[in-house]
Amino acid sequence: QVQLVQSGAEVKKPGASVKVSCKASGYTFPSYAVSWVRQAPGQGLEWMGWISAYNGNTDYAQKFQGRVTMTTDTSTSTAYMELRNLRFDDTAVYYCARDRSTAEPAVIDYWGQGTLVTVS
Amino acid sequence: DIQMTQSPSSLPASVGDTVTITCRASQNIRRYLNWYQQKPGKAPKLLIYDASSLQSGVPSRFSGSGSGTDFTLTISSLQPEDFATYYCHHRYNIPQTFGQGTKVDIK
Is A113 in the B-facing interface, judged by CB distances under 8 Å? Predict the structure, then answer.
């Protein structure tokens, strides 16, 4: 079965960086993409960006351009999301999720369990 | 950015009810609309993709319709496990955006 297992909770100071990992199993990793979505406490969902696990192409929401980097390691079927220059309002649960298309952001079908990043 | 507006924000309901949630996009998104269910402390779960296609393993009491700017999610014969928050989501362009959510809770 498709599984996405994320790294554990993080506490960071303002201005620091955080790197969240997402290990995929149960499917052929390079045949899909990975999207990253975050959810601030008690709030809705916010799409951050997408990376093709096939060729490494990325699409980032403009809001995060310059602060976020998404990468993949096909040898370990792992995706990473690094967010730099953290602010208090970056406190959120960060989700990785499988995307069905490697050509462009498409349907997000399976999600990781989420990683709480607290900026304090 | 395309704005996704859901209504209502809160929907009290009883087991066995049929409930309908609407989602309106600020511009034409054709049929690039998905619906997710989220329970407290859990990740979202895909229910419907491309407006009306049922995700594998999702009960048939969930259905979706619409195109362009107006979409609906219908849950027929609400079950106890269906009390949750529902989000619409468009994939028409970048950035993808979500509705603000509709909480279906016990009347």
Answer: yes
Q: What is the pLDDT along chain B (107 residues), one digit of tens a residue?
A: 999 999 999 999 999 999 999 999 999 999 999 999 999 999 999 999 999 999 999 999 999 999 999 999 999 999 999 999 999 999 999 999 999 999 999 88
- B-chain CB neighbours of A62 within 8 Å are 95
Choose the closest CB to B94 out of A46, A61, A112: A61
DSSP annotation of A64 reads: G
Long-range interactions of A60-66: CB distance < 8 A, separation 24+: A61/B94, A61/B95, A62/B95, A63/B95
**Pairing outcome for strands B62-67 and A10-12:** unpaired
Please identify which residue in the block is written with the tokens 């045949």.
Answer: A31
